[in-house]
Specification:
Shape: globular
CATH topology of one domain: Rossmann fold
Largest sheet: 7 strands, mixed
CATH architecture of one domain: 3-Layer(aba) Sandwich
Number of helices: 14
């Protein structure tokens, strides 16, 4: 059964709100997005035809600061998906204590079939369509699925051209030459490494004795595999969109990266057994890192998950039904709003650097990221212990309480 992302996001919020005893009026306010923008805009294609694209930008909450969230280009983009991801971004920023609210945006398109010139024209037009929401003090986009530093550079330039001067802090995830931050490319994966390390300590798992399966071998998944391998873990399974490979004795991650560059996928890599993406999730391992799509671990397969620790690198990979099964089985789940918050944390660093026009070294960025992620994990762990609940609800209790407090202190503008 496919679970609607927005329904899942609201259900997670409702559980935390009930435990916190939030007033019904406050619950109603935090359940709904603050703004939803739908745009339909023309783009001239390379063959001279004009195609109409549909895009979205959703701001869930800005009580704690400007809206922050990625832009994705995909044929699967929907308004409900944007609502869910914007809500999760609100809690994600709150759980690591950075002064942003949550937002998300996207364009319905198939970017892999578009030329670079078409992508640039579409990106620039979309940026102008949402420009009245954008800005370093109001709404700061970032890369997400099928978007990258170059696309952020085009968005920044389109916004800046209309003002007549460069505004680097209006987007994050930009190229270094345009005011991007050192360490941004690896930030999400580095944050995952930190919380995985902390969770392993709680479970008494030593890295040298730890086997790891990573679903997804894009930017986040591949770097996560490399960093966990560097920590001392043995990577026994990895996968991409075509399928996965397995070796109980360990996979050479640099070799896998080289194999993908040459062959375009992991299947057929020497010294490995081919498995499907669904089979990969059920492989024997200590740590499972879903770093691909949402709704991967459901009521159908949760009982067959063999990992002791599940770290959600993707957004929404575990359905509420699966969550209950894993919790009952004693599987520790580090929720997405904590696990993959390294990306938005370093985006915050990039925003600060852009505003100040003063840039930090990669080592300084990594040290600050490590400190924030360790502190956030500890705060979530302590909240879950105090409330005698799992890490997901502990993270939501912490994040929702922070947003609710800011909302109440600001009051109603009448």
């Amino acid at each position: 059964m496919v679970v609607d992302l927005y329904d899942a996001a609201v259900a997670q919020f409702d559980e935390a709100a009930e435990r916190l005893g939030l007033a019904h009026s406050l619950r109603a306010l935090l359940r709904e997005p603050k703004r939803e923008l739908i745009v339909h805009f023309p783009v001239r294609m390379d063959d001279g035809d004009v195609r109409i694209f549909t895009g979205y930008r959703v701001q869930h909450n800005i009580a704690r600061g400007p809206a922050k969230g990625g832009i994705r280009f995909s044929p699967c983009v929907t308004l409900d998906e944007m609502r869910a991801l914007a809500m999760w971004m609100t809690w994600k920023c709150a759980v690591v204590g950075i002064p942003f609210g949550g937002a998300k945006g996207g364009v319905i398109c198939e970017p892999h079939t578009m030329s670079r010139a078409e992508l640039e024209r579409m990106t620039r037009r979309y940026a102008i369509e949402i420009a009245h929401l954008m800005g370093p003090d109001s709404d700061i986009p970032a890369p997400d699925m099928n978007t990258n530093p170059q696309i952020m550079g085009w968005m920044m330039d389109a916004y800046s051209m209309h003002l007549g001067y460069p505004v680097p802090a209006t987007v994050t995830g930009k190229p270094l030459a345009l005011g991007g931050s050192a360490g941004r490319l690896e930030a999400t994966a580095r944050g995952i490494q930190v919380v995985t390390r902390e969770a392993m300590r709680c479970l008494g798992i030593e890295p040298q004795d730890c086997s790891v399966v990573v679903q997804g071998f894009g930017n986040v998944g591949s770097i996560t595999a490399r960093l966990l391998n560097r920590l001392g873990c043995t990577i026994v399974g990895i996968s991409d969109i075509e399928g996965g490979v397995y070796n109980p004795h360990g996979i050479d991650v640099p070799m896998a990266l080289h194999y993908v560059e040459e062959h375009g996928c992991l299947i057929g890599m020497p010294g490995t057994e081919t498995v499907t993406n669904s089979e990969l999730l059920e492989l024997p391992c200590d740590v499972l890192v879903p770093a691909a799509l949402e709704n991967q671990i459901t009521g159908r397969n949760a009982a067959r998950i063999k990992a002791r620790l599940l770290v959600e690198a993707a957004n929404g990979p575990t359905t509420p039904e699966a969550d209950a099964i894993l919790n009952q089985r004693g599987v520790m789940v580090v929720p997405d709003i904590l696990a993959n918050a390294g990306g938005v944390t370093v985006s915050y660093f990039e925003w600060v650097q852009g505003l100040q026009r003063f840039f930090w070294s990669e080592q300084e960025v990594n040290n600050r990221l490590d400190s924030i992620m360790r502190s956030a994990y500890q705060a979530v762990y302590e909240r879950s212990c105090t409330q005698q609940t799992n890490l997901r609800l502990g993270a939501y209790l912490l994040a929702v309480a922070r947003v609710a407090e800011a909302t109440e202190l600001r009051g109603l503008y009448l």
